[in-house]
Design goal:
single chain, 14 helices, alpha/beta, disordered N terminus, five-stranded parallel β-sheet
């Protein structure tokens, strides 16, 4: 525990944010809008590394790569066009990353009034809570931890000696042909498909009972079928017992299988990088490799808050920004705002893209039992999906019998755009009956929501026997009355 000499003085800031991450920059920009004094402590590490940015760029690249082959398959005379390759990928990826990082430019925040501090420091508890830098101590009403996340490496015998890659050390240009990806997250599934489409021979090992523990069975089965159809070798429910190196090759013992590979990529769960912050000295508890927080994002020290991609249920930037917004409001005003992930969309960057919001079918059945109507519509019913030859996928909408939307699961083209419409409807308690009154433009993916709303209405009417009898009687007598 660190102690520093106490001098009676006013607080330096209303909020001190610690971390060199997109969510730290976002939280700083939100806090400065409230006319507060804000400091952003970046530390001395290089600029933030965004797994989601890497996945987004790679997903788009493989999307273009796939469509280029489709064009050639249909003899559209594109032989003169050079195929996409790794050199194109690296050059394009570096340019895109620079443009994306410019969106969280330090100069912009500094011009708004945020104090940018490129130093490392640690918390002190006595005589007053503060954040100690090299030559001074920052005093603030509240503190927000938004530090980067790091991969959790399991203690597998021989793994450290043999060597492995993690997302931060991954260089696609230098990868060998045969790769084993050990995954406990959606990021591993995304990477497996992307590298497989770039010509690598991929084996995906999942130690859990399925590749996506949080998702419904029909989603998991379709994603797994897509991966296997593309040639990815899957080993599910296969705990790794040891890793060895023999004759220049790496060998993995997974369950009762021995697998030979050129390289191993670990894509496991992640945790916030809090090394050197002296959190134990200010009574901030760590639980299951995560900072322990309540629904207001307060740590066990009520003056210190935490947010980030490793804090919420998913490792996604929109979740991190949502948490940052809640944390900023609680730190600046009074801690009354609570996180609620029910209306936050989730996206998985595979092809076709999987997106969802709200409850899963399993969760809905447990909570609402028979008070449910579940409608599923395949992408084959969409004109645009047929035109693009992207008919794989479906949309599943889960509602109560009164039309209140509980959840939506979409796997298919543009699902990450459509899910935002459903999330907005859920947030504002707009029932599915209202969606039926919207007529989307012909040939758009959003038609699938209109089709589901119509099917929901038909299914609801079929179950209302009294209404059907009244309608049938009315039409019968009307025909008799007309001369």
């Amino acid at each position: 525990m660190i102690t520093v000499p106490y001098s009676p003085m006013s607080l330096d800031y209303d909020l001190v944010i610690i971390g060199n991450t997109p969510e730290a920059f976002f939280a700083a920009s939100e806090a400065i809008k409230l006319k507060t004094r804000v400091a952003l402590v970046l530390g001395t590490t290089p600029n933030h590394y965004s797994l989601e940015t890497e996945s987004l760029i790679l997903n788009y690249f493989t999307f273009l790569h796939g469509h280029w082959h489709n064009f050639n398959q249909w003899h559209l005379n594109l032989d003169s066009v050079s195929p996409l390759n790794y050199t194109h990928l690296k050059q394009w990826k570096d340019a895109v990353k620079q443009d994306i990082q410019a969106l969280t430019n330090q100069e912009k925040l500094a011009n708004l009034g945020v104090d940018i501090i490129e130093e490392s420091g640690e918390f002190c508890r006595l005589p007053k809570l503060g954040f100690v830098l090299k030559n001074r101590t920052l005093r603030s009403r509240r503190y927000l931890l938004a530090t980067p996340s790091i991969t959790i490496i399991p203690p597998i015998p021989g793994l450290a000696e043999v060597g492995y890659l993690i997302p931060e050390t991954l260089n696609i240009d230098q990868l060998p042909e045969t790769i084993v990806i050990v995954s406990q997250t959606a990021l591993g599934v995304e990477l497996a498909q992307a590298l497989n489409r770039l010509g690598k021979k991929i084996t995906l090992i999942v130690e859990a009972s399925n590749i996506l523990l949080q998702e419904d069975k029909d989603i998991v089965q379709l994603i797994q079928a897509i991966l296997e159809a593309e040639g990815i070798q899957l080993f599910i429910n296969c705990p790794i017992t040891q890793v060895r190196k023999l004759e220049g090759k790496k060998w993995i013992q997974a369950g009762n299988k021995a697998l030979e590979t050129d390289e191993i990529i670990m894509m496991n769960q992640r945790k916030l990088n809090i090394k050197g912050l002296n959190l134990e000295g200010v009574k901030v508890e760590i639980e299951n490799n995560k900072i322990k927080t309540n629904h207001k994002l307060q740590t066990t020290n009520p003056n210190i808050y935490a947010c980030g991609r490793a804090m919420g249920q998913y490792n996604l930037s929109n979740m991190a920004q949502y948490e940052g917004t809640i944390a900023v409001k609680n730190t600046i005003f009074y801690p009354i705002f609570k996180v609620n992930y029910d209306h936050c969309p989730v996206r998985m960057l595979i092809d076709p893209i999987f997106s969802r919001v709200g409850l899963t079918e399993t969760q809905a059945k447990q909570e609402y039992e028979n008070d449910l109507i579940i409608i599923k519509k395949n992408y084959k019913s969409l004109v645009k999906a047929t035109n693009l030859d992207e008919t794989t996928g479906f949309c599943k909408l889960i509602t109560r019998r009164n039309g209140l939307i509980l959840g939506c699961h979409i796997i298919g083209n543009n699902s990450d755009e459509i899910i935002n419409i459903v999330a907005l409807a859920m947030k504002n308690k707009i029932k599915i009956q209202k969606i039926e009154k919207l007529f989307p433009p012909y040939g758009t993916i959003s038609e699938i929501l209109f089709q589901i709303a119509q099917q929901w209405h038909e299914q609801k009417n079929k179950q209302n026997q009294l209404l059907n009898n009244c309608l049938e009687t009315l039409l019968f007598w009307r025909r008799k009355w007309i001369k």
